[in-house]
Write a structure and sequence with these properties.
Helices cover about 35% and strands about 25% of the residues. It has about 325 residues and is an alpha/beta fold. The protein starts with a strand and ends with a helix. The structure holds adenosine-5'-triphosphate and magnesium ion. Magnesium ion binds near residues 45, 46 and 178. Its main location: membrane. This is ABC transporter ATP-binding protein.
Length: about 325
């Protein structure tokens, strides 16, 4: 297994109290595999990714438990120097907002070339050639001519391609893409997503794709992990999950998007609000919003049960849920 996150816990100490953002996340990604991480805003998708990458703001954030095994080593036990080596060469991250992730006062060529001079000890000339190669690879037209331009001189879609190029530069084994296309308009979204999926296949990388967009997930992901209140509530191969969700929250998410195969059916909205992470409900955190909740759900916290090989659900009533 390329990445194996086990029982990860992260909290934030704030003036108002302790926000329990990640409460025992367990997920794994293999080489060449795409794991989509799905869930409402505030469910802990980004914080989990930041903890895996080693870029969590500490303080206020604090990892209070768990393991992040990457190629067999627990990253949480490495010092910052070791950790930095893993970032970039081992794993890289793509963010939603390229404009704030790229350096505004350096040309795109310099930023790309720096990856090779700093991390690979290459000459300036060699590094620039590599930069052009990367820009070609992410299909930026007239790469050589655009090397001397600054991030703001590129369109949103092109900037996102540059960030993908930066992430790919050192050929990491794992890429974490956090809402990589959310800021783009729809047609450009699809192009950037296709590019990312293609490069991932070509290079055999593991990919964690954090997204709100269930439509994107179906096309590119192998597996899905659905998060709620800082936990994985369901995990399954994409098509199994679409066919029959094993958790009422997943069902709610699926029923709240328009689908061609369900034309004519009314769209559904999950009732209520995401939980306050300073006061997560007892038992199953989803119970106040769950149409299937029973007494046990208010008192006992469900484990992630093995639904069948390769599938897990943290619902006492997953069988009923599967039957629909
Ligand atoms: N810097 C911070 N200080 C305090 N609390 C934080 C901080 N960053 C995150 N949190 C807490 O962690 C929770 C989870 O945040 P996270 O960014 O992981 O959500 P998300 O699932 O990525 O949501 P979105 O879909 O909106 O990106 C937040 O609701 C917030 O309570
Ligand atoms: Mg996020």
């Amino acid at each position: 297994m390329l990445l194996d996150v086990r029982d990860l816990h992260v909290e934030f100490r704030t003036r108002d109290g302790i926000a329990k953002a990640v409460n025992g996340v367990t997920y794994a990604v293999d080489a060449g595999e795409t794991l989509a991480v799905l869930g409402e805003s505030g469910s802990g998708k980004s914080v989990t990714a930041q903890a895996v990458m080693g870029i969590l703001d500490t303080p206020p954030g604090r990892i209070t438990g768990g393991e992040v095994l990457f190629q067999g080593r627990d990253l949480l036990r490495l010092g910052e120097r070791e950790r930095r080596k893993v970032r970039g060469a081992g794993m890289a991250m793509i963010f939603q907002d390229a404009l704030s992730a790229l350096n505004p006062v350096l040309t795109v060529g310099d930023q790309l070339a720096e990856m090779f001079t700093v991390h690979r000890g290459m000459s300036r000339k060699g590094a620039r050639a590599k930069a052009v190669e990367l820009m070609d690879r992410v299909r930026i037209p007239a790469a050589k001519e655009r090397l001397g331009q600054y991030p703001h001189q590129f369109s949103g879609g092109m900037r996102q391609r540059i960030m993908i190029a930066m992430a790919l530069a050192l050929e990491p084994a794992l890429i974490i893409a956090d809402e990589p296309t959310t800021a783009l308009d729809v047609t450009v979204q699809a192009q950037v997503m296709d590019l990312l999926a293609e490069l991932q296949r070509e290079l055999g990388m593991g990919l964690i794709l954090i997204t709100h967009d269930l439509g994107v997930v179906a096309d590119v992901a192998d597996r899905i992990a659905v998060m709620y209140a800082g936990r994985i509530v369901e995990t399954a191969p994409v098509h199994d999950l679409y066919k029959a969700p094993a958790h009422p929250y997943t069902r709610g998410l699926l029923d709240s998007i328009p689908r061609l195969d369900r034309k004519g059916r009314e769209l559904y909205a999950i009732k209520g609000l995401p939980p306050n992470l300073m006061h997560i409900p007892s038992g199953c955190a989803f119970h106040p919003r769950c149409p299937m909740a029973q007494d046990v759900c208010t008192t006992d916290e469900p484990d992630l049960f093995d639904v069948r090989r390769d599938r897990g659900s943290a619902c006492f009533f997953y069988r009923e849920c599967l039957r629909g």
